[in-house]
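User: Hi! I'm a student and our assignment asks us to look at how structure tokens line up with a sequence. Could you show me two examples?

Assistant: Happy to help. In each example below, the sequence comes first and the structure tokens follow. Example one:
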Amino acid sequence: MAATKADGMPIISKLYCSSSQAVLVVRKRPHVVSGGGFVVTDCSQKVVFRVDGCGVIGSEGELKLRDSSGEALLLIRRKGGMVQALSIHRKWKGYTFDYEGSQKPVFRLKEPNYSCLVRSNAIRISTEPRRSNKDWDFEIKGYFPDRSCSIVDHLGNIVAQIGVNEEVNQLMANKDLYHVAVNPGVDQVFIFGVIAVLDYIYGESTRC
């Protein structure tokens, strides 16, 4: 995959926007031992992020992304209520925290009601502040459970690609281990926040 330079605008933090392409590894955690979720490591096997799902948090439809020291960087919630139940879309909202601990919305993810079974239906994300004149800023291309998909911006540029190395694919048919290539200038916290939601949508490690 060619490393296309992004626009350099961080969504959560410029501290997690690398000047070069970053290839990170996701390893799912078993529910029985650690309550599920997944760990993200770099090429040196150093932990970069940890994602806690409802098995850890104890609240369905809620995810938390932490840094290597355990500090929460991102809280992600699935919207509920009667209006949401009647909507044709399921919606998620991602929040970061300010210095006083208040929550600040940073992105919204919209998925079709039956997107788990229909591969052609797009999953789209909008950020705050907005980046385009469309009603979305990023889109998922491909099918996450196959570990063959990309996150693209509103211009069609790939900002991150999710895949499985051939060697890993031969050893682990259940795809508990996969890599994510994040292009230069792209906010890695945002990327793995989106991946956490995809993991939940398709009933994987973050879901109870």
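Example two works the same way, sequence first and then tokens:
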Amino acid sequence: MALNFFDQFMSPTLMGLPLIGLAMTLPWILFTSPTPRWLTNRFLTLQGWFINRFTQQLFQPLNPGGHKWALLFTSLMMFLFSLNMLGLLPYTFTPTTQLSLNMGLAVPFWLATVIIGMRNQPTIALGHLLPEGTPTPLIPVLIIIETISLFIRPIALGVRLTANLTAGHLLIQLIATAAFVLLPLMPSVAILTALLLFLLTLLEVAVAMIQAYVFVLLLSLYLQENV
């Protein structure tokens, strides 16, 4: 029984072929494309308003040089948001619970921000490794610590997204199993457990949205240090 709880995180296969690629391309089908008409439907209007507000809030602290990343970061946030939300549906697979996928997204974006900083302003980029006013005996130690913290950033990005979604899915499955088992034995307790499951599902919807936003927000902060 304990092993079955983790079966939901296994990548599904069909005839030996992994279906994670299909699960990653499905969210793009759900987004409606803009039309040349002056009047659009409510969903398209809400989608456009949400993307505009997110882009303004995310890139307002950045200088104009970082605004080139607006389309890329907004697309990444919508992609992660769609994957996280679709993973809450029954009998679905959540690709963002795979650490390999999250690291595959975090490492290239983090490395791109570091390379841009080293290319455009190497003195300022290297200056982040040593805080101003550091005593001379602590300089080698602080450089080592800041270098380690720099390389831990992509690991923290991937692990944070994976851990939050995995923990939420496990809690939902555990409470759902408890409600199903308690229903014939103690119906009143099973109803309370089902109510707790409903509240937890609402919380997981919020977590799915927040984690997608936090992932892109941290990337924008890394970019802000290097542009």
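Here is something you could point out in your write-up. The chain has a mean pLDDT of 84.
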